[in-house]
Amino acid sequence: MDKLEPLRPLAPDELELLHWMFEHGSDDLRSFLPQMEGVHACRSCKCGCPSIRLEVDKSASLGLDRGETVVGDFEGKTALGELVGVLLFQRKGRLTELEVYSMDGQIKGESGKFGLPVIESMNLLVWEPVPGHPNVRAAAKSPGLPA
Q1: 9, 57 Cβ separation under 8 angstroms
Q2: What is the pLDDT along the chain (147 residues), one digit of tens a residue?
Q3: DSSP string of 18-84?
Q4: For position 144, what pLDDT does the model report?
């Protein structure tokens, strides 16, 4: 089993992204905002993505836990124009991971590495039913943003 990286403070770009997500996400997501004080992180994946595991201070207040693990679902583009999804996970009221993944498989470069999305490109994803398909949902742009 791989050894975990040591915990570290959030990098400025990680902190900026998370704050943007709290500001533009749901009220449920905002209930986790107090956990940002003193949060630490480490890489959670070795594939080249910038996903991080989050370690919240034990004294931080718990966020709203409705049983869902995903509390934030967003999309954006990296500085190279790569379309990425951004998920924020929680477990038992504590933030656990910020996952960033390729949405279209168009990561540029041979290494497969890519960065965080550019804040100006970010959108909240809202999932809607697909007419005629009762068990299928499709992502739609966030309310109030141009299509």
Answers
A1: no
A2: 456 689 999 999 999 999 999 999 999 999 999 999 999 999 998 888 899 999 999 999 999 998 889 999 999 999 988 999 999 999 999 999 999 999 887 776 555 678 999 999 999 998 778 888 877 677 666 544 444
A3: HHHHHHHS-HHHHTTGGGGTT-EEEE--SSS---EEEE--TTSPPPP--S-SEEEEEEEE-TT--EE
A4: 44
The Cα–Cα gap between 29 and 104 comes to 26
Q: Which residues of 64-86 are buried (b: 16+ CB within 10 A; e: fewer)?
A: ebeeeeebbbbbbbbeeebbbbb
Annotate 31-43 with b (16+ C-beta within 10 A) or e (fewer). bbbebbeebebee
How far from each other are the two terminal CA atoms of the chain, in whole angstroms?
44
Joined together, the tokens standing for residue 66 give 């409705």
Tokens of 85: 């999804």
Give the tokens for residue 101.
Answer: 């993944």
Residue ranges per structural domain of the chain: 8-118
Q: Please list, in sequence order, all residues whose beta carbon lies within 8 angstroms of the beta carbon of residue 48, skipping any fewer than 6 positions away.
A: 107, 111, 112, 113, 114
Cα(54)–Cα(35) distance, integer angstroms? 10
